[in-house]
Amino acid sequence: MLYKVKLKNSDDDVLLDDQVYEYLTSDPYLVKVDFVNNLRKHSSGCAVFQKTWKKADGGYKTETIYLHKLVAEKFLSHEKSNRKKLVGAKNGNKLDCRVDNLIYRSRSVASRKRKTSSKVGYTGVYKENNRYRAVISINRKSVHIGMFSTAEEAALAYNKKSRELYGEDGKINVIKPRKAKEEF
């Protein structure tokens, strides 16, 4: 069964499967702090629980629990290794915290899966004059793939090279449909 939990500071919902929801609503500590009803959307796009406690000796302590990390530690700890210790969402939706959607990844894979910061809108694609350069990182070195007439052609070339080098762990650009020019 699928549960949708409303976030406190957003119109978005977190997706949970029944085993995760059961755990979050039955664990004594999580029930005590009303974990499920105090989830917020973090600036990173993840669901997070944050609570500030007053310390007995004065001052404050902020407790932060990322939902995807909590779920992975509880249900997927056997998949964690020295190399694969970052939790990610297989489908790219950081609010989909179903066990089947979470995976431990290496830092390099997590980096490849991260949203692009390219001004063109595609990972590995950069505009140079009136053409587009496609590059990919191999062993921390930038490798030239080619020059193309459109950003979409460069993104497709990047996708092909990424699949060839990294298989399913590679970043794949989603090609946006080109807008038809309006005629007057």
Give the tags.
elongated, three-stranded antiparallel beta sheet, 184 residues, 2 domains, alpha+beta, GCC-box Binding Domain, 24% helix
Written description of the protein model:
The protein has 184 residues and is an alpha+beta fold. The protein has 2 domains: 2-105; 111-169, 2-Layer Sandwich (GCC-box Binding Domain). It contains 5 helices and 10 strands, in the order ββααβββαββαβββα. It has helices at 18-24, 28-32, 67-75, 107-113, 151-166; strands at residues 2-6, 13-17, 39-41, 47-54, 60-66, 86-89, 102-105, 125-128, 131-138, 141-148. A hairpin with a 5-residue loop joins β4 and β5 (60-66). The longest helix has 16 residues, at 151-166.
Average pLDDT number: 87
SSE-based structural type: alpha+beta
What kind of sheet is the major sheet? 3 strands, antiparallel
Cα radius of gyration in angstroms? 21 Å
Described by the principal axes of the CA atoms, the overall outline is: elongated
**Number of DSSP helices?**
5
In total, how many beta strands? 10
H/E element sequence: EEHHEEEHEEHEEEH
Major sheet: arrangement of strands? 3-4-5
Helix percentage range = 10-25%
Cα distance spanning the termini: 52 Å
Oligomeric grouping of the chains: single chain
Low-confidence stretches: none
Beta percentage is: 25-35%
Can you lay out the helices and strands and say which pair or pack?
Blueprint: E1 2-6, E2 13-17, H1 18-24, H2 28-32, E3 39-41, E4 47-54, E5 60-66, H3 67-75, E6 86-89, E7 102-105, H4 107-113, E8 125-128, E9 131-138, E10 141-148, H5 151-166
Antiparallel strand pairs: 1-2, 3-4, 4-5, 6-7, 8-9, 9-10
